Amino acid sequence: MAGTALRGRLTWQQATVTGLVAETSNTRSIVFDLPDWPGHRAGQHVDVRLTAEDGYQAERSYSIASAPEDPHVVLTVERLDDGEVSPYLVDELRIGDEVELRGPVGGHFVWESTCDSPVLLVAGGSGVVPFRSMLRHHAAAGSTVPMRLLYSARSRETLIYADEFTRLGGRGGIDIRVTLTRENPGTWPGERGRIDRDFLTRTGLPPAEEPLVYVCGPTAFVETVANTLVDLGHGPGRIRTERFGGTGTP
Amino acid sequence: MTTFDGNAIAGTLNAVFGGEMTTASGTCASCGATELLAQLRVYRDAPGVVARCEHCDAILMVIVEKRGIACVDVSGFAALEEPTQL
């Protein structure tokens, strides 16, 4: 039938922007209305495609920030100064605009509330985005498995979802630990410093509990954390990673 | 140059192979290591996508799309298995 997507076939569809939330000075959440959204799993991605007037196209993959139970698909995008797509999404996009979107995609970096293992989430910077989906999914599904998030950011100003994490923390097995790496002493009562071996030993879940571990952030961050977790005794097969590039140290 | 991993090309792989592929495992023809496609090192600054082995850096896969036609070179793999549902 003309105009009808083949079942299961991944196709581009028009998504309308229905909401914009400034999370930090260079990060914002975009709420989309997608008439034919098939639903997604926590941790999955979508591809966003922009087409210039001359026909030039650029596409990028973004983690979905909303839970499967949420009524709208939300992406949280950080502006990369040399980016082709993110500056437009963060600075230019307005409510009512349309962009092309395809998804959901990805089956590796996902968490289902039916899984009964404890969960350790380790985020560097905007690597926390897929974890908001997982935390919201945990809360919405009424899961009681322990889910602990270790979240490293440079400073208070770069923290995203701070208010929501304050509300979610301590409820139904959710435990959120934020550490700031560049904040001035005396201005932050919580953890300070990078997520290193000492921090993971002190605040992570013990390997003996065989948690499912998810690590997301800049490439160097993810590789350092994953290697340290293996050194501490976590099974490599229990660790799922997602590296989104960049050289920054959150 | 920015490095991503196979998660970032889930959509491209899905469009090319017709289904979710990041949970499929591939064996490197160069060093013999087997990894999920989600774990490949991915470079997308080139005109197209280049995926390299996480262990030996050999080129495993190149995907270039032009005018709606995708050219896919998977000759760096010795084997490419069916995806597993996680």
From TrEMBL, chain A:
Q: What are the residue boundaries of the FAD-binding FR-type domain, all occurrences included?
A: 10-111
Q: Which GO terms describe its molecular function?
A: 2 iron, 2 sulfur cluster binding; oxidoreductase activity
Look up the record and name the cofactor or cofactors this protein needs.
Answer: FAD
SUPFAM superfamilies, per this entry?
Ferredoxin reductase-like, C-terminal NADP-linked domain (SSF52343), Riboflavin synthase domain-like (SSF63380)
Give UniProt keywords alphabetically.
2Fe-2S, Iron, Iron-sulfur, Metal-binding
Q: Does the keyword Iron apply?
A: yes
Please identify the protein, giving its name as recorded. Ferredoxin reductase
Automatic annotation (TrEMBL), chain B:
Name any one Pfam family assigned in the record.
DUF6510
InterPro entries linked = DUF6510
Q: Which domain of life is it from?
A: Bacteria
Name this protein carries in UniProt: DUF6510 family protein
Organism (species): Amycolatopsis carbonis
